[in-house]
Design a protein that fits this description.
globular; single chain; about 375 residues
């Protein structure tokens, strides 16, 4: 096995992709400060305009594609996270927007192709949901390439990450014994979400109501069948994961209810509430929940659970409650700004805590391995006299 194809070479190829996702995240948080009407470390005219695509496809999309490419285990599969990461990074430059838009389309198309190969390996209802999410992501990228603004294609972006995560949760739920009707019901919810997403372009009012109802049905399925409810009474990492999952489902349910009872929202406080309930309350909470499992699988670096991770997660949910429930839904601007700033602090705190825990654990593991190797080394009898 050559170094390029061995574990070290594999990790060396994955680390830049993870770094690209991280840069997109930091740039998106910087843009969030500007959108909150507050000073930001970096200020450009373009950054606030691309904030949504940067966070969804540049950051989260790259993470999803990287995880799936690792699962497939083929070198070409890295085209998906590579194109999405490169497209996200180019959004930060003065280059013509056509180029990053094309890269995002290419990355989403490669992700769809990746799911096709995974399907040939082992078909499952979970893969159907994740592939449907990838198709929704490709649809969003194509709509943006065609000049559709983000508020109009928001349902496509929501479906991309919601269906991807829901499919992953079904994979884990199958560890337990599911009722015979569970998977068909799940696929019915997935189909309803896709139908609602498509309908929002043709009949916005009807489609948005349908999408809201479909999301509520999907949340109900996840709460009923996810192992998180049984793990909430445990301790340590299992309890942390379960709490993040259940809190995320609550935020997704709120977004579904807002769409169901308010119809289309493309600006103002209701729009802000839907966007951040989904992408911060649900998606970011899911990323936090899965990080201790995903990072070791992708980079082969440990990420042990530390209480600081839980502190960051609860700060995220409490600050989001301040922003959405008070700032958006009661139209209190001060609460909206303070909640938004604390959201950013929570994400940064989680990032710093995760990196610190991983580096510390890696150093300890390396030191222990070195000590073990030294202790087990044969002793030269000439020096032992």
């Amino acid at each position: 096995m050559t170094p390029a194809s061995g574990p070290g070479g594999t990790v060396a190829r994955r680390a830049p992709l993870l770094a690209a996702a991280g840069i997109c995240l930091l740039a998106g948080l910087d843009a969030a400060l500007g959108l909150l009407g507050l000073p930001a470390p970096v200020t450009t005219d373009r950054l606030p305009q691309v904030h949504g695509m940067l966070m969804v496809l540049g950051f989260a999309g790259t993470l999803v594609a990287l995880e799936r490419s690792v699962a497939l285990g083929r070198p070409w599969a890295h085209l998906a996270p590579g194109c999405l990461g490169a497209g996200g990074l180019l959004l930060l430059t003065p280059v013509d927007l056509l180029i990053p838009r094309l890269l995002l389309v290419a990355g989403c198309a490669a992700l769809v192709a990746l799911y096709v190969r995974l399907w040939r390996r082992q078909p499952s209802a979970a893969l159907i949901a994740q592939a449907a999410g990838a198709v929704s992501g490709l649809g969003a990228a194509l709509l943006w390439l065609g000049g559709i603004d983000v508020p109009r294609m928001l349902p496509w972006l929501v479906a991309f990450l919601v269906l991807t995560i829901a499919g992953e949760r079904l994979e884990l739920a199958r560890v337990a014994v599911l009722a015979p009707s569970a998977e068909p019901t799940f696929l019915g919810c997935v189909g309803a979400v896709i139908a609602g997403v498509v309908a929002t372009l043709l009949w916005p009012a009807t489609g948005t109501v349908l999408l809201g109802a479909a999301l509520l049905a999907l949340v109900a399925w996840l709460v009923a069948h996810d192992v998180a409810r049984r793990l909430l009474r445990s301790t340590g990492l299992p309890r942390f994961t379960a709490a993040c999952l259940l809190a995320g489902y609550a935020w997704l349910g709120l977004a579904g209810a807002l769409w169901l009872f308010n119809g289309p929202v493309d600006e103002g406080t209701r729009y802000d509430a839907v966007v951040h309930a989904v992408f911060l309350g649900f998606v970011m909470s899911m990323i936090m929940a899965h990080a201790p499992v995903i990072l070791p699988a992708v980079l082969r670096r440990p990420l042990p659970y530390r209480p600081a991770l839980a502190v960051a997660a609860w700060l995220l949910h409490l600050s989001l409650a301040l922003r959405v429930l008070v700032g958006d839904l009661r139209d209190v601007r001060g609460a909206w700004q303070l909640g938004g700033v604390l959201d950013i602090v929570a994400v940064l705190l989680f990032l710093v805590s995760a990196v610190t825990a991983s580096v510390t654990a890696s150093r300890r593991a390396s030191a222990a391995a070195t000590a073990s190797a030294f202790a087990s080394a044969p002793t030269d009898p000439r020096t032992s006299r």
